[in-house]
Every structure is written in structure tokens, then in C-alpha cells.
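Model the whole thing, not chain by chain.
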Amino acid sequence: MPYISLNRVSYIYNGRSKPAVENVTIAFEQGEKVALTGMNGSGKSTITHLMLGLLKPQAGTVALADRPIGDYSLVEIGEKLGYVLQNPTQMLFTTTVYDEIAFGLRWKGVSGTELDKVCTNILKHFSLWPLRHKMPLTLSEGQKQLVAICAVLALKPAYLILDEPTKSIDTFRKEILLKALRDIGREGTGTIIVSHDQEFTRRLCDREIKMVDGKVVADGSRC
Amino acid sequence: MDLDVRTKLFIAAIFSVLAIVYQDPVILGTLLVILFPVLAFLKTPLGKFYDFRKLFYLYLILIIIQSLFVRSGTPLLIIGTIHLLTTDGLIYGLAVVMRFIILVGAGLILVACDTAKLLLAMSKMKIPYEIVFMIQLGIRFIPILIGELSATFNTIQMRGADLRKVYKRKVFKVYMEIFTPLVFGILQKAEQLSILLELRGFRLYPERTSYKTITMKKRDYFVIALTSAATMVFIYGTILYSKGQIPLNLR
């Protein structure tokens, strides 16, 4: 049974004549590491928005854990799927890096030493510990990207959807991110990576879905 | 009818000024009734009014707040010797809401205009280019800021903050938490934008040329004259209605 499935999904943005996504059928099994590739405007980000229920398809169905995505609230979707936007600035809304990581955990009821332990571990793991008191919006693009990823990773979702996660990250931190994603993959967390970074996706993902003009043109495992 | 932007600006200004200077609910109601055919005549997207349904609670709060400060009329709610709610209070509260709708309608006249032509009209009206440019930026960036804010709220919910299921005090706390980064982000964008503008030679020359042109036609002068005459009649009508008094809200 697939964890996320799109069945004959089509979506047209308001005022456009051409569909951004057309008759797409994809299934993501639990724990899979999938690369979603394609040129700019091929419909990759639209697919992620459909999977998260942020867009409602005009045709077809989207299901998460065997239930239609429309049955879930955004909070419930957030418990299952962790999503990092292409633009990390839109995902940073607290006054310190530490609070950014702690925000979701606090809402989950984690507090005291346990909260501090999780935040400290993740910040140290991604070499962000020296920046913990800084305001996230004052950081470099790459650092912002990592903070946004860490904030989602701390919540341990069943599936991670990362839109261009390596866009501004330096080689050193890219390696750390790769290792972290492999580690959580071993624990059973699935990952969908929307990226142009072929080297990164080749090293991490075992399946690639290629999109052209809103359609899936290739879907297969990597050798 | 395809009118010049300046004509539309004139009509919008007339409605806005009348909505602000009059306080009487009957006069504002009449103005509201006149507004809708005018909006239809100017091909203003009336459907946009539907978007304001979300402000229903705000209207309700406005009516209640306004009514608390009016003592005259038949008391509807009395606590001790204090008249908390009166019929006059409710009527004036309604007047505040009508004023708000008229101002929104006047704004919608401008929303339907071509932005470039609107700015050109302002320039022709001798409004300094810097101010015109700032308005242009505002119009350009408001949808982007709304989109970003919406993405931030989606993120907040996806990180587990179910703002619908917690106490209002906690929701308020979340809003206060994100307020500083939000303002900081806007200032950061403004700074980046000013650097980009300077790099592209903003204000390098005293005058700017424009690809588009606007011209006032006979029908524009006719509509302006008709609007002016109708305004005079309206004002005269309000004086008659107020038995010789000028019913303005200029205190």
C-alpha cells in the first residue's frame, strides 16, 4: 500500500490555459528515497503542493496513508509529512535559531531537558550550534536553508519533502545533510527530493521520477 | 465605459470624501445605493466585495464599539445607571460599516485600472515621481507579501501549531512571536530593493519617459462634469434632509 499516491491528477493555475500537472499517477512507498527531477516549470513544485494538500487538483485524487488528502487538516498532514520550501525565508518566523527548532517540538508537548537535548543534538550535528542565538533571517541563504531543514527533521515526520534542499548549501554541510538523510532513511523515513543537483540525488535516492511539461516521462529505479 | 484613469480617480475621490465627511446613516446609506450602479458603469469587479465577507466579525466589532460611545436613543442594554447599548448607538455603528464599504468600493474603482496608467495619471497630476514609485512598489509587493505570509502560516501549522484548537491567548502569543521576524523581513526586503534601485540608476535623470500615454477625451470631461453636478445635487439634498443644517462630520 503506497504511503502517498497521486492518481490521474491534473492541475491548472488560475488564468493559465496549459495545465501545470497533467494526468499524473505516482505512488510513493513508505521509506522510499525518491528524486523528482525536471526543468524549471515542469510541475515538480506543483506536485509537492498537491501532495501536501496546499493545492486541490481539478481532476484525479491524492491520498496520504490510504485516506484522501482533503480529509486531513494541515496540522495532521504536518505530523506525517515534513516539507521544506525552496525559499527558506518563508519558513523562518522566530527570533532565534534555537526557537526555530524548538517551535514544533513545544507544540508537540516536548519540554524541559528533553526539548533541550533534541535541539542541542540537531544544532550540533549540522554545525549550527554557534548560531543558536542569532535571528534566522539574518543568516546566509545556506544557513537559513539548513535551519529550515533542521526544524522539520526535529519533528521526525514519516516522509520528508525537500524542494531544492542543496540550492545554497556549501559542500561541507551538503555532506552532513546527505548523511543525516541516509540515517533517517535507515530508520524508515521516506524522502522526496525536488532538485537539479544530480550528484546529490544520485548519491541519496534509489528512484528517479522525471517530469517534462507537467507529465511524468520517466519513473524508475536507479542503477 | 472606458474612461481615462484621472476620471476614475476623480470619481473615487468624490465617494471617499463624501463617505468621510458625512456621518448620518441615511446619507451614507443613500451614498452606498448610488455607489453600486456607478461601480457597474465603470466595470469594477463587484465580485471582490465577496472577499470582504471574512471581515464580518470586524464589522460586528465596529458596530458594537461605535454603539458603546453613543448615549442617545432607546436603551437596549443597561448596566446599573450606564446605558451600554442604545438604538442610536447601533444605527451609528451601522453607519461606520457603511462608510467602510463605500471606501472599499472607491478603492475597487482604482483596482480595476491599469497600474501603469494609474501611475502615469498621478505623475500628470504633478505628484512627485518618488511617491508614485513608492505606490507602484506597494501595489506590486502586497500580493507577494500576502503569499509569503500565507506560506509562513502553513509552515506554522505543519509544525504542529493548531491555532484553531487552542486558547485565543496562545494564538495571540504566536502572532506576537512572529511579529518581530515579519517586520524584520519586510525591512530587509526594502533595504535590498533600495540597493537594487540605486544600482539600476534610479533618479539618475530628473525626468522619466513612459511607453504608455494617457489622454482625456470628451466623454471624460462629460463624466467629470456630470459627477460634479451630481455631487452638488447630493450635497444640496443632504442640506434639505437636515432642514437647512450642513450635516458634516468635521468635528
